[in-house]
């Protein structure tokens, strides 16, 4: 299997080359092209995990209810093109299985069949963060694809780092985090236009996005004409 990010920048996409017997999984709707020998199987489960309940968990995490699985049907290599909904960069992560990756809502794009997907419930911390109540946890060894709104940056944390909740893409489960306010008080944070932040502690890698899709939506929404029914 060969997975390559093409045209790095605001309009990144991914080319997946599948050998006979190999499978790749993505969010349903991410495929924009495929060779004629590629079978596309839409399902609610991945690697035998969870079925309907797992799909509901993915919805709570801001992901699609369905997953698409791609494979060659004629014993020959096949090609698949994948792209996210938002304009922004895509990051290919080579997971070695030593630690899980936690993907924030909407950032999971695709993964090798060898990786298992599950839902990591944030509990009360998720309610405070104003973001999704769950993360998508990805475990095992293989290729993981995550997408960002704007530019994506990787940071190796050794100690601590503070990130606005709407800018987190994915991070290693070796990192712990707490939810806090950006300013000295909640009033100061509100007046400054800042929200809540995630205070990370420990050692591990995190990917962040330069732009916040929710804030962008709130800015552009009032400028759009009303929907016609």
Beta-strand fraction estimate: over 45%
- What composes the largest sheet? 7 strands, antiparallel
Number of helices: 4
CATH superfamily: Mitochondrial biogenesis AIM24
Which structural category fits the helices and strands?
mainly beta
How many domains? The number is: 1
- The low-confidence parts are 55-63
Helix content: 10-25%
CATH-derived architecture = 4-Layer Sandwich
Radius of gyration: 18 Å
Count all strands and give the number: 17
Shape: globular
Mean pLDDT: 83
CATH class: Alpha Beta
Main features:
229 residues, mainly beta, Double-stranded beta-helix, seven-stranded antiparallel β-sheet, six-stranded antiparallel β-sheet, 13% helix
Task: Walk me through this protein's architecture.
With about 230 residues, the chain is mostly beta strands. The chain has a single domain (about 1-225), classed as 4-Layer Sandwich (Double-stranded beta-helix), CATH 3.60.160. It contains 4 helices and 17 strands. It has helices spanning about 50-60, 125-130, 185-190, 215-220; strands at about 1-5, 15-20, 25, 30-35, 40-45, 65-70, 80, 90-95, 100-105, 110, 115-120, 135-140, 140-145, 150-165, 170, 175-180, 195-210. The strands form 3 sheets. Strands 9, 11, 12, 14, 15, 16 and 17 form a 7-stranded antiparallel beta sheet that branches. The protein has a 6-stranded antiparallel beta sheet with strand order 5-6-3-10-13-8, with no helix packed on it. A hairpin with a 6-residue loop joins strand 1 and strand 2. It is globular, with a radius of gyration of 18 Å. The model is unreliable at about 55-65 (pLDDT under 50).
């Amino acid at each position: 299997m060969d997975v390559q990010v093409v045209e790095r920048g605001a309009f990144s996409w991914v080319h997946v080359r599948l050998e006979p017997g190999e499978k790749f999984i993505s969010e349903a709707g991410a495929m924009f092209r495929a060779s004629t020998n590629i079978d596309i199987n839409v399902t609610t489960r991945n690697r035998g995990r969870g079925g309907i309940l797992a799909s509901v968990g993915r919805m709570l995490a801001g992901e699609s209810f369905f997953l698409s699985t791609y494979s060659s049907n004629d014993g020959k290599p096949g090609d698949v093109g994948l792209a996210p909904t938002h304009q922004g960069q895509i990051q290919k992560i080579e997971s070695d299985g030593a630690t899980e990756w936690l993907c924030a809502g909407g950032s999971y794009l695709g993964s090798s069949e060898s990786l298992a997907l599950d839902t990591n419930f944030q509990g009360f911390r998720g309610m405070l963060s104003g973001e999704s109540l769950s993360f998508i946890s990805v475990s095992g060894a293989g290729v993981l694809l995550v997408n960002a709104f704007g530019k994506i940056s990787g940071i190796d944390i050794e100690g601590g780092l503070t990130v606005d909740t709407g800018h987190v893409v994915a991070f290693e489960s070796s990192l712990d985090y707490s939810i806090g306010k950006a300013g000295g008080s909640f009033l100061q944070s509100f007046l400054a236009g800042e929200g809540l932040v995630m205070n990370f502690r420990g050692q591990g890698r995190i990917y962040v996005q330069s732009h916040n899709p929710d804030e962008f939506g709130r800015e552009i929404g009032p400028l759009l004409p009303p929907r016609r029914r």
